[in-house]
Amino acid sequence: MIQRVQSIFLVLITICMVVALANPIWVKMGRQSPEIAQLTALEYSQQQVVAPQAGLPQQLAPATAVTPVWYLALLIAIVGVISLYAVFQYRNRLTQTALCAVNAIMLTAIMGIVLYRTLYMGKSYGNPGDQGDYLPGFYALIAALIFNALANRFIRRDEKLVRGSDRLR
């Protein structure tokens, strides 16, 4: 049935994916005031202050470099859709388990991409000793990993209960 506890966890995964898509994941401040690096589900942007060139007014101009990371948003959206689809597969617990396994693999890939972008690519920006700040989008991804593990656990528990009751008949 849809009102089982694993269905709640699967819906929470979908909500976490919407939060991760809508909110920034990571931010790191530079050495000067307008310098900032930010990772969202769609782009990785760095805003740096460029020194003025000769013959131009003595004013610092910000330059923004944007790198699209649309594949991250695509993976996040796919995880949300799969978990929502898994809610309605309540009659086939083996399919739900398989969908949770696929979600776990994709969530691991998402976390790998995010950590690569923040720890390795972002380290060269600004102060190398500063790791930056993780924002609500990152914590939504961690919550989705936890909810996925819990949903998988409760699906397996239901399957074991059904198999145990079939043996008693």
From TrEMBL:
<feature type="transmembrane region" description="Helical">
    <location>
        <begin position="97"/>
        <end position="116"/>
    </location>
</feature>
<feature type="transmembrane region" description="Helical">
    <location>
        <begin position="136"/>
        <end position="155"/>
    </location>
</feature>
<dbReference type="InterPro" id="IPR025635">
    <property type="entry name" value="DUF4293"/>
</dbReference>
<keyword id="KW-0472">Membrane</keyword>
<feature type="transmembrane region" description="Helical">
    <location>
        <begin position="7"/>
        <end position="26"/>
    </location>
</feature>
<dbReference type="Pfam" id="PF14126">
    <property type="entry name" value="DUF4293"/>
</dbReference>
<keyword id="KW-1133">Transmembrane helix</keyword>
<protein>
    <submittedName>
        <fullName>DUF4293 domain-containing protein</fullName>
    </submittedName>
</protein>
<keyword id="KW-0812">Transmembrane</keyword>
<feature type="transmembrane region" description="Helical">
    <location>
        <begin position="69"/>
        <end position="88"/>
    </location>
</feature>
